[in-house]
Amino acid sequence: MPNENLSEAKKAKKDEFYTQYNVIEKEMNAYLEYDPDVFRGKTILLPCDDPEWSNFTKYFAQNFDRFGLKQLISTSFAAESKNYKGFYQPTLFEKNDPKYDQNKSTRNGKIFTLTCDRTGDLKVNVDDLEWHYLQGDGDFRSEEVKRLRDESDIIITNPPFSMFREFLAWIMEADKQFSIIGNMNALTYKDVFPLIKENKIWLGPSITSGDREFQVPDDYPINAAGWRIDDQGRKFLRIKGVRWFTNLDHGRRHQPLPLMTMSDNLKFSKHKEIKGKTSYDRYDNYDAIEVPFTDAIPSDYDGVMGVPISFLDKYSPEQFEILGATQRGCHDEVPDTRKYDDYWEVRQSGKKTGSSGGKTNENANLLGNDGKKNYFINKDGRVIQSAYQRIFIKHRRETSK
User: Fold this and answer.
1) Where are the domains of the chain?
2) Which of 282, 304, 337, 354 is the most exposed place for a label (fewest CB within 10 A)?
């Protein structure tokens, strides 16, 4: 039981990542560069927030006039309702306000709204924010926050990582524009990848590699690489694999990826896995070639290609068509060239591993490879998961009239 409690505590703490101002600013600037009026006349909702000090609230409040916003709404989740209940103390901003209620401070969420100049200084900014307690705890799934969602035009936040799927479904249910932060692994989720494939959502342009720094609670245990404590005692942790997920358009999305021909890649590629070979590796049960690096996609190959999921950082829907993925399958667009009647045969060495049903440790190797790229096979002989996940794509070619 103690170990289980510790595990749950660690999981809950991973949802307490607070986004840096410059990370927000860089992403929003990309949308504004593509469409300077992207936020004009819009109501923006910032759920899953801590409005008193949130950088999301601060950023949009400070730029309210410049963006031409109609309204800004920011909500918080009650401290008592969080899975991770760290030390909580209300801010002086809240305690010094006549509306302060000691019981509601921990049990109720808060809502901050910004619509007009309340201070008389002829500008709308953070000083004009109004606030009150929500009736409930501020859970985004509550009817109270759903009503705010339905009244808004754009939803922007860093939702709890553990609830990313549910939060995205909550947005899509209301058919809203959005920009949210999530882990890159979410790209392959069964309820996320189809949205990527159908160009209903895509990745934002400002984070394409490396890690990003997030503030964490003061009592967050710092026991990993990539952390620091600033001169004010605040803790920060660098998190790998984060991305912006959005349906707001941006210029990068429409820039074609510069590519070399297949022959030039085989001669000049900077990757030893490509350079000097006579051809690209092929899958043994798909009519597709393996392209282990995005910059090694051949410009003149018209067939199906398996590429890394990081390809989506540079994906242009005008240049490529997404057919499927190793975990999600693409059997309609890419018929199997081989199925395994006896899936024990899949392992080239002939050694049997796993059990006789469902997912196994058997691997369908690329033709001619050394067995290191393992593809897990289900009992029907279909590839269902790859140790190196791949997205299957094709070039879009203009057809002559």
Assistant:
1) 2-253, 277-401
2) 337
Does residue 40 contact residue 71 with C-beta atoms inside 8 Å? Answer: no
Average per-residue pLDDT for the chain: 82
Query: Could you give the C-alpha distances from 69 to 34, 40, 101, 249, 286, in angstroms and in order?
Result: 17, 5, 31, 18, 50
Alpha carbons 234 and 185: distance in angstroms, whole number: 28
pLDDT at 347 over 80: no
Side-chain half-sphere exposure of 98, counting CA atoms within 13 A: 1
76, 109 contact by CB (below 8 A): yes
Task: At 267, list the tokens.
Answer: 């001669």
Question: In this structure, what is the dihedral angle of CA atoms 360, 365, 369, 371, given to the nearest 10 degrees?
Answer: 10
In this structure, the strands spanning 154-157 and 43-49 are: parallel
Q: Examine the pLDDT at 310 and tell me if it is beyond 50.
A: yes
Dihedral, 331, 334, 340, 341 alpha carbons, nearest 10: 60
Q: What's the chain's Rg over C-alpha atoms?
A: 25
